[in-house]
Fold:
Amino acid sequence: MEKRKIENIKDVKEAELLYFEVTKEEVINRNYKRLLESLQVLSKAGKYSREKLMLVFYGYDNDEREIYTIPEIRDFVKEIYERYSYIFYFLTSIDNNRTIIYACLNDCELFKQENSNKVALRIIPNKAIQERTTIEMLKYGVGQDDLLETRRILFTLI
Structure:
């Protein structure tokens, strides 16, 4: 599999959705380089990057656990969050991607739905994560002159 990163602002502007796969190898080796470089481009693209990033983890297809319950993925997301606490500005809501990544930072309760293999998720918010996310998202939104949309994203998240 070719490991790609988001290269430039022009690509961000033209894309409807930026699908970014973090490999299991990157997670295990705590190799953040490719994702951090891509987040840097998204940060520079500002409003053009709003809700365009779908962040997925490749190599866990045979793992029955949900992404937000896998300790090494949770640790990986926490490290990225430390550097880009406003990452949720970039994340899409498609397939609950933003919520799944947010769940990696918080405690969760899983409920198996009756007569189904589906699992319902309840996020138990960490107050410090909530507060930091709110502050950093609003700060980023103001800097992009995109406060209204940033608030909308926050309301869907927190």
Q: What stands out?
A: Strands lie at 18-23, 53-58, 107-112, 119-124. The chain has a mean pLDDT of 94.
